[in-house]
Amino acid sequence: MIPELAIGAVVGLIISTTGVGGGVIVLPILTYFFGLDALTAVATANLLSMLMKISSSYMHFRMGNIPLRQSFVILLIMIPGTVLASYGVTLLSHLS
């Protein structure tokens, strides 16, 4: 339990201070240290990334760093692609 907590603290610190994508750091850790298969590691990394970004987004929102109009336009463009990619990955995982 202690090694997992230490790894989580270090990863959270690195991601929050450098802005490096969580997948670059989290995926290898989940795969090699925790033995997760690739699909489970990606899903877990996505969940962790979402949870970490909620607090960061809230702080940036409070500081006035987010241009809301442009952000919503980008979000509307990204949602269909994200949904399609999620279904595609799920379909591909069932083929093997």
Structure overview:
The protein has about 100 residues and is mainly alpha-helical. Helix content is about 85%, strand content about 0%. It has helices at about 1-20, 20-35, 40-65, 70-95. Helix 2 packs antiparallel against helix 3 (about 40-65).
Question: Topology of this structure?
Answer:
Layout (H helix, E strand, L loop, with lengths): L1 H17 L3 H12 L4 H26 L4 H28 L1
Helix pairs in contact: 2-3
Main sheet: strands, sense, barrel: none
Outline, from the CA principal axes?
flat
| Average of per-residue pLDDT values | 87
Order of helices and strands: HHHH
Radius of gyration: 16 Å
Characteristics:
single chain, 96 residues, mainly alpha, flat, 0% strand
Quick recap:
By secondary structure, this protein is an all-alpha fold.
